[in-house]
Design brief:
The protein is elongated. The protein is mainly alpha-helical. Helices cover 61% and strands 0% of the residues. The site of nickel (II) ion has 5 residues, from helix 2.
C-alpha cells in the first residue's frame, strides 16, 4: 500500500497530464483549485483528508457532460486509476461513489445522499463556480459554446431535467440566475457556506454593475 502522500501526488500528476489541454473551464487548474479548497474545508469539518483529496482531484476526469450525459464514465476511470496504484478497496469505493455523486444536473433534479467527504468535495466544486473565479469561468464556458454574454429579452429558466440543462443554449448572464446564485444555499458544510457567502456577495456586486453599465450607467 502506497503512503497517502504518494497516492495524492501520483494522482495529481496523472490528472494534470490528462486535463492539461481542456479549455472550457474544466481544466487542470479547476481540479487544482477544488483540491486546495476541499483540503481546507476537510480540515475545518474533520473529514477524511485522503478520500477528500483523491475525490477532489479525480472528480472531473471523466466528466459526464463531455460523454453525452453518461454518469458512469467518471467513477470507472477513477476506479481504474486508483486500482492501478494498489489503493485499498474501501478508499477506492468511497472515492468512486463521490465522483459519481457530485455533478450538478439541473436545479430540479434529485441528488443522491453524500457522505461527509462527498459533501466537502461538492462544496469545493461549487465554490469554484462562484466568486471571481466563477465569473471568469462562466464567460469562458459561454464563449466556448458560442453563447451570448447577455440578452435582456431572454428570461432565466429553472431546468427540471439534466437534458433540459444541457440543451438550453442560454446566455452567460442567465447562468448566474439559473445556477450560480443558487449555490450558496446549497452548501453542505458550514465551512463551505462561510466561503460561499463572500463569493456570492462579490457576484451580486458584479451583476449590479453589469446591468448598470448595460444601460449606459
Ligand atoms: Ni468540477
Amino acid at each position: 500500500m502506497m503512503e497517502p502522500n504518494e497516492l495524492i501526488e501520483r494522482t495529481a500528476d496523472h490528472v494534470r497530464a490528462c486535463l492539461s489541454d481542456e479549455g472550457s473551464g474544466h481544466d487542470w487548474w479547476h481540479s487544482y483549485r477544488v483540491w486546495r479548497t476541499a483540503k481546507r474545508i476537510a480540515k475545518a469539518e474533520g473529514a477524511d483528508s485522503l478520500v477528500v483529496e483523491l475525490a477532489a482531484l479525480l472528480h472531473d476526469l471523466g466528466d459526464w457532460k463531455a460523454h453525452g450525459g453518461d454518469a458512469t464514465v467518471g467513477p470507472a476511470v477513477s476506479r481504474r486509476w486508483l486500482e492501478s496504484l494498489g489503493a485499498e478497496s474501501p478508499i477506492v469505493d468511497h472515492v468512486c461513489q463521490i465522483v459519481g455523486g457530485i455533478s450538478f444536473k439541473g436545479a430540479g433534479v434529485e441528488q443522491p445522499p453524500l457522505s461527509l467527504e462527498g459533501q466537502v468535495v461538492q462544496d469545493a466544486d461549487r465554490l469554484d463556480a462562484i466568486g471571481a473565479i466563477g465569473i471568469a469561468r462562466v464567460f469562458a464556458y459561454g464563449g466556448a459554446k458560442g453563447q451570448l454574454i447577455h440578452d435582456p429579452h431572454r428570461q432565466p429558466i429553472e431546468h427540471r431535467t439534466a437534458e433540459a440543462y444541457l440543451s438550453s443554449g442560454g446566455t452567460s448572464i442567465n447562468h448566474f440566475y439559473e445556477k450560480l446564485l443558487l449555490l450558496r444555499d446549497r452548501m453542505n458544510t458550514s465551512a463551505g457556506r462561510a466561503l460561499a457567502d463572500q463569493r456570492h456577495q462579490f457576484m451580486e456586486q458584479f451583476l449590479r454593475r453589469f446591468h448598470e453599465e448595460w444601460e449606459g450607467g
